[in-house]
């Protein structure tokens, strides 16, 4: 009797033990199978591979005879040792024909040096449950010593060089393979590929070892439910889904679901998502890809892409996918990857194969714990959205989207270079678009830097101002305990800030080394938005850019940008024929607060339809060559004790601040009288010292008479206009009147309880 005949005979003997459970007349018959009825021992010693082969043949034979059947395979508590490699041209996953009319579809994928035999293989099966007693009780583990990779078929030793011939390839196969089936449930069991004890050969394929050695493979199958399953330590993927989907706009839900599962320490991918329309993944882990250490070679065995999850459609599409409460931590390349190679014209960025991919309440963590790219995520494909996610380490790229729905978007996410078990986060930035993103949007997000810079936003070429990334109501937090590791500055090379934007210090920040934000191309603060740059010791450089605060359309909506203490903004241009342009729109303001600094250098044009305000104790330096156009009711207010000079924040620049200001031009309106100060403002308010932290006198303005009254005992010392020049006032009982003065900003010098007080008022009649 041949070995094949013996195996077929062994497969069919356990069928005598099958019990058939008849339910009510409204339900189909359920066939209940127990893996031990097929000869499995489950003691962690005996080889149980034949038992699983027999169970596979039994299930497939049932559906060949009755496609409407229901089958449940129970794998009780135990450790089941599996794994078999068949020589070239021998029969792989073979079962006897059911009958002459319905032969069993034997595998013909047997032309490798060693062909891995699938443990459970279901083809055209429907309504199947594969159930264990829990991931901590039911374990299917591959035996030690299986070969994987490229080998010399004559010696059985690893090939001397990388090979791509099947004559050299050793595969391991899949633990569970489901093909052209429907309504399959896998739950409450653990699969262990045991790549740590495999014989690893040389590389095979384009990068690493691209041969089958996977936990669960699903192809052309709908309604799959994987729950409470672990598939770890496989030489290729923990799980792979490859359904051939049609038009992504077609209303079709394949009802695929993965929940409460883990796919950790696999070599190529935790999850390869190659094609699907309709998938939900809940509370699952895709961690430590490429980190398994082989005990024979004492090294890791990574293969690219090396992701927690890789969304990479192959001859298909990926659409309508949701990951919620999932982890993607410490993976060789990316926690989440979806890259399309630009070297292949058939896989260009214009070839759209992804749509509506959502990550909600997930953790993505790039960790510098070994080799590899080690980033949180890298996405160039379209339709990805992240909401309420923690993204630790660098997010790279973004899609070249034609519309908002296809753009990479983030809502209420936290970006931080947070350490993992003492290991630093991956990347030099929190976000690096690398010139790839169009219409990328961040809304209500926080960016926390501990050791690295916040953003590197390189404008896409050719540049289009309508495609710039948008930061809406986001906060940039400096929490540096040490100086940033990267010497590179932050770059916003074409960006729009909208809503309320804050750049602030964390309360726990202990290192105040200078950092820099550079803004190029275009910087937009649209109408109704407020940007407050209050983080300590930050230099903001705007160069060769169109810098717009507010809009050109008349409005009553206030817009503002504020530079806080120990912050400096440096606005300059390098192209006389195409100068940097600062525009302050109507009802918009640009405020330099006490201790802050503003330097405006040559090759710059300023249009002011709103208000430029420099507070007491703030630094202001404008090169005489700068062209300033005052438009309509535009105003420039420079407080009496503002400092006309160079701030230490800007001391590395090779220029000296002069005492001469440029002449302001009233933009086409001869009735507007507005000009810049012509000389350095000297303040008479030098002695006694100013102290604004003591008791304040109260002022009581009259809206009808223009008179201002003070608390009893208050003495008016002087009144100064916006240029710092003293003005005459009309004294009245317990106060004075400004009714005779033009509208504008005025500074009052008062003496109250032997303390000097400065109060600033705006006169609008």
How many strands, which pairing sense, and closed or not: the largest β-sheet?
Answer: 14 strands, parallel, barrel
| CATH class division of the largest domain | Mainly Beta
Strand-residue fraction? 35-45%
What is the multimeric organization of the chains shown?
single chain
Corresponding CATH architecture of the largest domain:
3 Solenoid
Residue runs with pLDDT of under 50 for 5 or more positions: 1-26, 342-349, 666-696
Put simply, the count of helices is: 2
State the total count of DSSP E strands.
64
Report strand order across the widest sheet: 20-23-26-29-32-35-38-41-39-36-33-30-27-24
Q: Specify Rg, calculated over alpha carbons.
A: 35 Å
CATH topology of the largest domain: Pectate Lyase C-like
How many independent structural domains? Answer: 4
Helical fraction: under 10%
SSE-based structural type: mainly beta
Q: How far is it from the N-terminal to the C-terminal residue, by CA? A: 111 Å
Mean model confidence by pLDDT: 82
Question: What does this molecule look like?
Answer:
The protein has a 14-stranded parallel beta barrel. A twelve-stranded parallel sheet has the order 25-28-31-34-37-40-42-44-46-49-52-55, with no helix packed on it. By secondary structure, the protein is mainly beta. The protein folds into four domains: 314 residues, Pectate Lyase C-like, CATH 2.160.20; 146 residues, no CATH class; 122 residues, no CATH class; 65 residues, Immunoglobulin-like (Sandwich). The protein is 4% helix and 42% strand. The longest helix has 17 residues. Helix 1 crosses helix 2. The N terminus is likely disordered.
């Amino acid at each position: 009797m041949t070995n094949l005949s013996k195996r077929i005979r062994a497969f069919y003997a356990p069928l005598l033990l099958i019990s058939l459970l008849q339910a009510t007349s409204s339900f189909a018959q359920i066939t209940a199978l127990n893996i031990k009825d097929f000869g499995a021992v489950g003691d962690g010693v005996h080889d149980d591979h034949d038992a699983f082969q027999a169970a596979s043949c039994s299930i497939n034979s049932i559906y060949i005879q009755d496609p409407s059947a229901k089958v449940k395979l129970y794998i009780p508590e135990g450790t089941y040792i599996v794994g078999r490699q068949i020589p070239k041209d021998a029969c792989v996953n073979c079962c006897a024909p059911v009958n002459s009319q319905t032969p069993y579809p034997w595998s013909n994928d047997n032309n490798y040096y060693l062909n891995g035999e699938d443990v459970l293989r279901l083809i055209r099966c429907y309504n199947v449950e594969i159930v264990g007693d829990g991931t901590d009780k039911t374990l299917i583990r591959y035996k030690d010593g299986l070969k994987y990779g490229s080998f010399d078929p004559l010696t059985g030793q690893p090939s001397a060089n990388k090979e791509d011939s099947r004559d050299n390839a050793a595969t391991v196969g899949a633990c569970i393979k489901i093909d052209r089936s429907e309504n399959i449930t896998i739950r409450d069991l653990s699969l262990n590929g045991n790549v740590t004890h495999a014989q690893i050969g040389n590389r095979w394929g384009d990068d690493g070892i691209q041969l089958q050695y996977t936990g669960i493979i699903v192809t052309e199958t709908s309604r799959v439910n994987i729950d409470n399953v672990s598939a770890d330590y496989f030489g290729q993927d923990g799980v792979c889904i490859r359904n051939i989907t049609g038009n992504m706009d077609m209303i079709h839900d394949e009802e695929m679901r993965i929940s409460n599962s883990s796919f950790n320490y696999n070599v190529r991918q935790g999850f390869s998502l190659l094609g699907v329309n309709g998938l939900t993944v809940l509370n699952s882990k895709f961690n430590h890809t490429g980190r398994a250490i082989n005990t024979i070679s004492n090294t890791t065995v990574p293969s690219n892409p090396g992701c927690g999850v890789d969304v990479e459609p192959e001859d298909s599409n990926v659409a309508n996918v949701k990951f919620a409460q999932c982890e993607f931590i410490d993976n060789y390349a990316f926690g989440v990857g979806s890259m399309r190679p630009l070297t292949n014209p058939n896989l260009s960025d214009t070839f759209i194969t992804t749509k509506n991919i959502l990550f909600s309440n997930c953790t993505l963590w790039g960790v510098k714990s070994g080799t590899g790219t080690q980033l949180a995520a890298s996405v160039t494909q379209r339709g990805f959205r992240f909401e309420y996610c923690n993204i630790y380490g660098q997010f790279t790229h973004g899609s070249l989207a034609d519309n908002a729905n296809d753009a990479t978007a983030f809502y209420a996410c936290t970006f931080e270079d947070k350490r993992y078990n003492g290991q630093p986060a991956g990347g030099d930035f929190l976000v690096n678009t690398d010139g790839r993103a169009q219409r990328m949007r961040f809304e209500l997000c926080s960016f926390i830097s501990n050791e690295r810079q916040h953003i590197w936003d390189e404008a896409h070429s050719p540049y289009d101002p309508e495609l710039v990334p948008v930061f809406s109501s986001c906060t940039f937090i400096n929490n540096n305990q040490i100086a940033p590791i990267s010497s590179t500055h932050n770059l916003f090379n074409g960006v729009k800030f909208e809503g309320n934007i804050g750049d602030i210090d964390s309360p726990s920040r202990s290192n105040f080394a200078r950092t820099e934000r550079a803004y190029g191309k275009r910087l937009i603060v649209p109408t109704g938005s407020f940007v407050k740059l209050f983080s300590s010791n930050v230099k903001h450089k705007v160069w060769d850019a169109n810098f717009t605060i507010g809009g050109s359309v008349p409005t009553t909506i206030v817009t503002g940008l504020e530079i806080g203490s120990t912050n400096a903004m440096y606005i300059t241009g390098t192209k006389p024929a195409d100068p940097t342009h600062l525009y302050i729109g109507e009802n918009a303001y640009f405020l330099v607060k006490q201790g802050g600094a503003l330097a405006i250098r040559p090759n710059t044009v300023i249009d002011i339809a709103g208000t430029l305000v420099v507070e007491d104790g703030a630094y202001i330096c404008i090169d005489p060559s700068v062209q300033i156009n005052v438009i309509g009711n535009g105003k420039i207010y420079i407080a009496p004790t503002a400092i006309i000079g160079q701030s230490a924040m800007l001391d590395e620049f090779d220029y000296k601040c002069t005492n001469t200001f440029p002449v302001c031009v009233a933009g086409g309106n001869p009735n507007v009288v507005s000009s810049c100060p012509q000389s350095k403002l000297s303040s008479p308010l030098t002695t006694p010292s100013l102290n604004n932290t003591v008791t304040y006198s109260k002022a009581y303005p009259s809206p009808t008479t223009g008179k201002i009254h003070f608390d009893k005992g208050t003495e008016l010392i002087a009144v100064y206009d916006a240029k710092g020049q003293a003005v005459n006032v009309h004294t009245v009982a317990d106060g004075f009147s400004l009714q005779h003065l033009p509208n504008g900003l005025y500074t009052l010098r008062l003496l109250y309880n032997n303390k000097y007080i400065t109060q600033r008022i705006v006169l609008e009649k």
